[in-house]
Amino acid sequence: MATLAAEATQSNALEAFRMDVRDWLSANFPPSLKGVDFAMSALEGPAEPTPDSEAWRIAISNKGWGTPTWPREYGGGGLSGAEANVLRQEMARIGAANPIGGMGVMMFGPTLLEYGSEEQKHEHIPAICRAEVRWCQGYSEPNAGSDLANLQMFAKDEGGHYIVNGQKTWTSGGQWADKCFALVRTDKSHKHEGISFLLIDMTSPGVEVKPIKMISGESPFCETFFTNVKVPKGNLVGAEGQGWTIGKRLLQHERSGIGGGRMAGMASLSALAKAVIGTDAQGRIKDAELRTRITKLEMDGRAFVATAMRVQAEGGVSVASSILKTSGTKLMQEASELRIDILGMQGLGWEGASEDGGFTQEQIDQTRGWLFGKATTIFGGSTEIQTNIIAKRILGMLDHQ
Amino acid sequence: MAKLSEEQVMLRDMAQNWVKGESPLAAWRKVRDADEAAGYDAAVYAEMAGMGWTGVIIPEKHGGVDFGWMSLGLIVEECGRTLTASPLVASAIAASAIILGGSDAQKAQYLPAIASGDLVATLAVDEGPRHDPSHIAASVADGKLSGTKMFVAEGDSAGLFVVAASDGLYLVAGDASGVTRAQRHMVDFRSHAEVRFDGAAAERLSSGGDALLGQILDRARIITSAEMFGMTLQAFDTTLDYLKQRVQFGQVLATFQALQHRMAGLFGEIELTRSAIETALTTLDAGGDTGQAAALAKTRANDTLHVMSREAIQLHGGIGMTDEYDIGFTLKRARPLEQAWGSSAFLRDHFAQLGGY
């Protein structure tokens, strides 16, 4: 009974918090932003701020609620997981999106909170919480993809600073970024132990960024060249040689981010098929094989969502992160392919010069999404690499090398 | 794992220990070799009853402990690991029909006997070899039930049948006049009897309404999934252990990437299936709508056990084909359970219908 009473008190406190959130949102969320999603800026670059979007960013930053569970002393909201859930629910209820996002929030921030010095946390975290600094990831190189530890970009110790030379590629949002968290080599004699985690200012002399045009027509990734770039010693996170450990931890955050949250819109497949293909007298989608494929996907999608929720309940980043990434990305790709089969030719439109190209914006976005989606099983550790990780680290199957 | 209560952790640990100590796969082999129609050891079932397992979902006022479906699922999963043969699942499904659809008098008459393990009960729905609850010819006139039910789980030993007739569910005593049973000897050596009712005295479960059969089938699907999931885990663990010790080409098999990727793929499927089954069990305990959750849980349990039972044999190689080795038992028990209460094809169609497409 004691636990029941404690639970009741807790849920009363949460309900009181919910009322506070509602009051605060109605006072601070500009109704003009209802339903506006800020997530696309990762693909298309930052949108010009409007007075309303700027007011919303500042209001939520002052409260720390853009990064609700991060510590207050660095500019976070200091909320518990349960309180953050209430905040998310209330924001979703009124169609309010979080304007504080990007790689700083999803990957770099949590990693710096774990491994950074006090000085580094105070320098970088508050700006992430306010979306004032945009971060990009300097991991992959032309010869270091799946074999990431083969990276060669070298940071030479020059006493008070490093001199960095080399090339990174697939730098997401590199052309819009202010700063880069990078894996660099500080020791050529040890593969993994020779890697360090370094923060580089993208405005430094010697940094050059070239966007890469993708099959989807977008350029969300760049090649980034570093020529004699001077980086202060204070920008080293952790110790020299600790970069591989820190970098892998960051990848776990990345993988949970990629796998999760991408199933939105899935349930609409059956509705789309009903509308496009029609139904028989029993209300079943007319094309029996398509109906079965849609059912399979919707069922697997549910099992995936249930697993994502379970992982969260079990405490966030865990051994299951890899499973979420592989299964979430695969399902998302299948959903895109299935949507083409439902729409037929109408699902393969491309932007044209004429005003009426015969395709809706939604259909054109579907084409881009389908193409861009092919990247998700490659980046952040390909499906094959994830599968190796599951076999070796989780199942304890021995290394074949 | 879902968050478990203290009671649930205790129950699961108790089940784990008991299964390991008292009911290993060797115990099933003995039952299999004895080859009796009932297909289980009555003394073992009495032991399970002594631990309270037969009353897990039965209300306290009727002699149970009322711990709920998640708790029962944990026990059933552990029993599934070693193919522990018992009418625990069948009786729980039948009991749930009485709990949901029975009168106070019916509950008072039957539930305490099921909870104590003295009475084995079972649900009899299908009249053909494939699950099809939409075609039921059995009918009742003047309180007498007539019809034939096929492949009734534990039908050889059941003392009470919950029978689906054209106008609802009925209780028929196993020893009522007009009840005859024929054993169907099957690949899993468990009981799947054909039961003929020829004007047998029947009492209606009248409190459940039209949705009663559907609700009981959901429960049957979900709890059967838990048993199948235990079997899947056991087959996976056994196969993984085998790959880690079998040496060919001077290396243990576990070092080969082709095999690593197959095991990792199975592991991913297992994790997704675990989530689907846990969600169904918690939905049941929370009193939510279980139609799609049950179809999802059983479909995933079917498909995951199906592929695991085949891969287990393949990855064991020749030894997996021998009767002396246990892994073949998994394959032989898997298929009857895959058919029970809906194959994946049936359940996907059911899921889509419930989803309105």
Read across the widest sheet of chain B, the strand sequence of neighbours is 1-4-5-8
Shape of chain A: globular
Poorly predicted ranges of chain B: none
Kindly name the structural category of chain B: alpha+beta
- CA distance, first residue to last residue of chain A: 56 Å
What name does CATH use for the topology of the largest domain in chain B?
Butyryl-CoA Dehydrogenase, subunit A, domain 3
Which homologous superfamily in CATH is the superfamily of the largest domain in chain B? Butyryl-CoA Dehydrogenase, subunit A, domain 3
Give a verbal description of the structure.
The complex is a heterodimer of chains A (401) and B (357). Chain A is an alpha+beta fold and 401 residues long. Chain A folds into three domains: 33-129, Acyl-CoA dehydrogenase/oxidase, N-terminal domain (Butyryl-Coa Dehydrogenase, subunit A, domain 1, Orthogonal Bundle); 135-241, Butyryl-CoA Dehydrogenase, subunit A, domain 2 (Beta Barrel), CATH 2.40.110.10; 260-394, Butyryl-CoA Dehydrogenase, subunit A, domain 3, CATH 1.20.140. Chain A is 45% helix and 13% strand. Chain A has helices at residues 2-28, 41-44, 51-63, 81-93, 103-115, 118-129, 243-259, 268-277, 288-313, 321-343, 361-372, 383-394, and strands at residues 135-138, 154-157, 161-172, 179-185, 195-201, 207-212, 221-232, 236-237. In chain A, the strands form two sheets. In chain A, strands 1-4-5-8 form a four-stranded mixed sheet. In chain A, strands 2-3-7-6 form a four-stranded antiparallel sheet, with no helix packed on it. In chain A, helix 9 (288-313) packs antiparallel against helix 10 (321-343) and helix 10 (321-343) packs antiparallel against helix 12. Chain A is globular and about 80 Å long. Chain B is an alpha+beta fold. Chain B has three domains: 6-115, Acyl-CoA dehydrogenase/oxidase, N-terminal domain (Butyryl-Coa Dehydrogenase, subunit A, domain 1, Orthogonal Bundle), CATH 1.10.540; 121-204, Butyryl-CoA Dehydrogenase, subunit A, domain 2, CATH 2.40.110; 212-354, Butyryl-CoA Dehydrogenase, subunit A, domain 3, CATH 1.20.140. Chain B has eleven helices and ten strands. Chain B has helices at 6-22, 25-34, 42-50, 69-81, 88-101, 104-115, 212-245, 257-286, 291-316, 327-339, 344-354, and strands at 121-124, 139-141, 144-153, 160-165, 168-173, 179-182, 192-201, 203-204, 247-248, 251-252. Chain B has a four-stranded mixed sheet with strand order 1-4-5-8, with helices on one face. In chain B, helix 4 (69-81) packs parallel to helix 7 (212-245). Chain B is globular, with a radius of gyration of 20 Å. The model of chain B has no long low-confidence stretch (mean pLDDT 97). The chains are: A alpha+beta (401), B alpha+beta (357). Chain A binds chain B through residues 270-271, 273-274, 279, 282-285, 291-292, 294-296, 298-300, 302-304, 306-307, 309-310, 313-314, 320, 323, 326-327, 384, 387-388, 390-392, 394-400, and chain B through 1-3, 240, 243-244, 252, 254-257, 259-261, 263-265, 267-268, 271-276, 278-279, 292, 295-296, 299-300, 348-349, 351-353, 355-357.
